[in-house]
Design a protein that fits this description.
The chain is an alpha+beta fold. The protein has one domain (9-91). Helices cover 15% and strands 46% of the residues. A hairpin with a 2-residue loop joins β2 (20-32) and β3 (35-44). The longest helix has 14 residues, at 77-90. The radius of gyration is 13 Å and the shape is globular.
């Protein structure tokens, strides 16, 4: 689990709600003290495949505190590759 995030870092966000675990993947856009603006890119489906959100999805960007979820660096090569492609196709700095 990461204690601090960096701008442009790919992160795996794990949230536990009512004994259910929700995992999403995103990129840190900005840092403001202990808050991070993160754009969610996708998730792993029940078959274990990474699926990207369509760019038209509502609320892709949200602000998180480091305590809002468990944050880990994205280490899976296939997920990182798909996230890179999604960023290149849809995100303009």
């Amino acid at each position: 689990m990461l204690k601090q995030l960096s701008k442009n870092q790919y992160v795996k966000m794990t949230k536990v709600n009512d004994k259910e675990k929700e995992v999403e993947y995103g990129v840190v856009l900005n840092k403001n003290e202990d808050n991070y603006e993160i754009m969610t890119i996708g998730f792993i489906n029940k078959n274990g495949n990474f699926l990207e959100y369509p760019i038209e999805s509502y609320n892709l960007v949200d602000t998180y505190n480091i305590d809002d979820a468990y944050f880990d660096e994205v280490k899976e090569n296939e997920v990182r590759r798909k996230m890179n492609i999604w960023m290149e196709e849809h995100y303009r700095h």
